[in-house]
Amino acid sequence: MILKNKDVLGLESLEADEILGVLEIASRFRAVFDRPVRNVPIMRGRTVVNFFHEPSTRTRISFELAEKRLSADIVNFSAANSSFKKGETLRDTAENLAAMKIDMLVVRHSSPGSARYLAQVLDCSVINAGDGAHEHPTQGLLDIMTMRQRLGDLRGRKVTIIGDIAHSRVARSNIWGLTKLGAEVTLCGPPTMVPGALERMGVVVEYDLHRAVADADVLNVLRIQLERGAGKTFPGNREYHRMYGITEDIVRGLKPEAFILHPGPMNRDVEIAGEVADGPRQVILDQVANGVAVRMALIYLLSGGDPGALGGSDKG
After folding, report:
1. Contact at 8 Å (CB) between 57 and 265?
2. Taking the domains of the chain in order of start, what are their residue ranges?
3. What is the pLDDT of residues 83-131, one digit of tens each?
4. In the CATH hierarchy, which top-level class contains the domain 137-287?
5. What is the pLDDT of residues 234-249, one digit of tens each?
6. How far apart are CA 1 and CA 5, in angstroms?
7. In the CATH scheme, what architecture does the domain 16-135+288-310 have?
8. pLDDT tens, residue by residue, 151-196
9. Distance separating the N- and C-terminal Cα atoms of the chain
10. Which residues contact 205 (CB under 8 A, 6 or more apart)?
């Protein structure tokens, strides 16, 4: 058994062998994408509810596509058109959904800890699709999968995460996952966005961008989280781009084999220049494709799927 619990709530609670096991299964599903028929009947007759209490495009579509490719029955929940508008609590809504005999709940919510809370009160499996500024485990897994496709073993590899770390659930999942796999992680951004206390997570904090990226194998560039108040922590977009934006000048100073990730959506010419976002160093579309494979793997494993039934895989 690869996953030891019924839920996936964050990479902090997963062990290194669990992370690697999920990525191995994801690499097998990734191979399915090249087939003429991309659907497999593994989840036929099972129901997954996408319980999104916060806006999402990429993550929600990625989960939906993963569920459809596994042949699951899907119910999409939107808070904007729900009984939340009438004052119903999170628990009451979730328990009503679970009473309809669903098999899995994928939850995104603005409150940190919401996924863990639901996992404690529901019998079905819960996957955290992002809870406030806490964690975003599937994004962390797909980022790590993308890095491993290029680098193989991540032990000793240097990953620099740049941007609004303070408000980023993606950064936290990356930190937990990467450090467990032996990577060396550096955080970089304005002091108001990168609290020095994060060093307690086993990372290096560096406020000078040139020093932070000089020997990096990977740059993971984060979006400025304006909806979480990040706009109050730096003078303005132009100033941020001048000090911490990933420009062609920054790229020219990277190691020849270094590459760039971005979880999206991008603020072009703020955290990343348009020519870099479209350039040869970025692997953003690989991240998107890997996201579907990672989510397929988690759904498969949490539903009791047999890893041995999927055959071999490519590296990654």
Report:
1. yes
2. 16-135+288-310, 137-287
3. 666 677 888 888 888 889 999 999 999 999 999 999 999 999 999 999 9
4. alpha beta
5. 668 889 999 999 999 9
6. 10
7. 3-Layer(aba) Sandwich (3.40)
8. 999 999 999 999 989 889 999 999 999 999 999 999 999 999 998 8
9. 20
10. 186, 187, 188, 194, 196, 198, 199
Domains 16-135+288-310 and 137-287 share a fold: yes
Helices (H), the chain: 16-32, 58-69, 90-98, 114-121, 137-151, 169-180, 209-213, 237-244, 248-252, 274-277, 284-302
Q: Which residues of 204-231 are buried (b: 16+ CB within 10 A; e: fewer)?
A: ebbbebeebbeebbbbbbbbbbeebebe
Cβ burial of 264 (10 Å; 0-12, 13-18, 19+) is: middle
**CA triple 111-117-121, angle to 5 deg:** 145
254 phi, psi to nearest 5 deg: -80, 160
Question: At 159, which amino acid appears?
Answer: V
State residue 59 phi and psi, 5-degree precision: -65, -45
Model confidence band, residue 232 (pLDDT cutoffs 50, 70, 90): low
Read off the pTM. Answer: 0.93
- Return the closest-CA partner of residue 142 out of 311, 12, 257, 263: 263
> What secondary structure does DSSP assign to 28-68, as a single string?
HHHHHTTSS----GGGTT-EEEEEESS--SHHHHHHHHHHH
> Over the stretch 131-143, which tens digit does the pLDDT of each residue have?
999 999 999 999 9
CB 163 within 8 A of CB 222: yes
| SS3 state at 105 | strand
